[in-house]
Amino acid sequence: MSARRGRTARPLALWWRAVTLRSEWFDHALSTAPADRQASEDAITDLYALVGRPRPSFVWVDSPAAAQPLLPPSAGIRSDLPLPLESLVASLVSSLRERLDRRIGADRDISFQPPDPPLDPVASLRSGVPLRTVLEAGVRDPLRRTAGESVAGAIRAALPERSGLVWYGQHEAAWVAHYDVHRRVGVSLFGADDLVQLELWATIARSCGWWWPREGVCVVAERPAEVHVEPVAGSAYGESRLHRDDGPAVVFRDGWSLHAWHGTAVPSWVVESPTVDLIAAEPNVEVRRCAIEHLGWAEFIERAGLTLVSRSPDPGNPDAELRLYDLPYQRWGSRARLLLAVNGSVERDGTRRRYGLRVPPWFDDPIDAAGWSYGLTGPQYAQLQRRT
């Protein structure tokens, strides 16, 4: 075995061990099993003890939405009063993560500049990228995008902002797994006390959904009963995003649900009953795009009664075409035209999305309309090498 192969054999073996652990954490993050209430309550009680509080009363609910009317008002932070319980817990976990980060980065070679991001973990390790860097991109980040941004982000957006500090249980898998994998593959050594606390957070992430610690009481939500995701095409790290084309993507045990279209949270009608009239009335351009994609552009154009005005190759996007349509006044509320274009940037899943832009009715040339959308004239737009 060459010296170079010998130097990379161990990091590669550790990486494949990390891949197994990452799959384990993905399962926890997307689990729909009933909560392990005893394990959750015991771990949360131990966290209360670390901030000097006795075991709270536990109130279990079937969804984050059901928790809202039960939450006692947050005490807030005042200079003349002790910190509220939830702020103490936040300080506890923040300090833990700072200490663990210092241990992970204690011997990092700051002069080395790895690829950003390392798309191929095996090739990256063989080229000398530190295992810690690959673990960050290959474990923490895909879990963050799947559990933290796609699933928890959709739930958070559907809740009122008044709920105060909340921890996400299984949907905090990204940061918990980040340190847990470092520990279990033997890349980093953590102090005994920090390992005990990390295991408390790991137990909660493996056992329940969202939870709201308050003085004397802790409200804890069950995990969802259904979670529907799709793999993100082109991802080297197995990440997923919320998606379901025939019903809600997330369903809780009390029936509270959320819909998503290829990772974008949408109202239920986008998935279950998209119509041209609802699309025309929708102010959010991303929601409109998702609804049209569900119908299909050809179907939408026919149902909406759009009339093709002109078409042209897109000079800012080779191999793509610009199409300009007339919008029926009685349906869209004002005279306008629609420019149908293909996104110049590739999405994270490797596709280029088609999208429609409303433009003033006096445009007859799609290149002039495309230029207007960028604040340019048609001739200026025609000189673009590549638009985004």
Any descriptors?
388 residues; alpha+beta; 15 helices; 4-stranded antiparallel β-sheet; disordered N terminus; DUF6745 domain-containing protein; 15% strand; DUF6745; single chain; 2 domains
Structure description:
Residues 168-384 form the DUF6745 domain. This is DUF6745 domain-containing protein. The chain is α+β, with helices and mostly antiparallel strands. It folds into two domains: 3-241, no CATH class; 305-382, no CATH class. The chain contains 15 helices and 13 strands. Helix 1 (3-29) runs parallel beside helix 6, helix 1 runs antiparallel to helix 7 and helix 6 packs antiparallel against helix 7 (173-184). It is globular and about 70 Å long. It starts with a helix and ends in a 6-residue tail after the last helix.
Using the alpha-carbon principal axes, give the shape.
globular
User: What portion of the residues fall into strands of 2 or more residues?
Assistant: 5-15%
Strand order of the largest sheet: 4-7-8-9
In total, the number of domains comes to 2
Share of helical residues: 40-55%
Sequence of secondary-structure elements: HHEHHHHHHEEEEEEEEHHHHEEHEEHH
Main beta-sheet annotation: 4 strands, antiparallel
How large is the count of helical segments?
15
The number of distinct β-strands equals 13
Helix-and-strand structural type: alpha+beta
Mean pLDDT, nearest integer? 86
- Rounded Rg: 25 Å
- Gap between N and C termini: 47 Å
Name the poorly predicted regions.
Answer: 1-6, 106-116
Domain DUF6745: 168-384
Pfam families: DUF6745
Organism: Umezawaea endophytica
Protein name: DUF6745 domain-containing protein
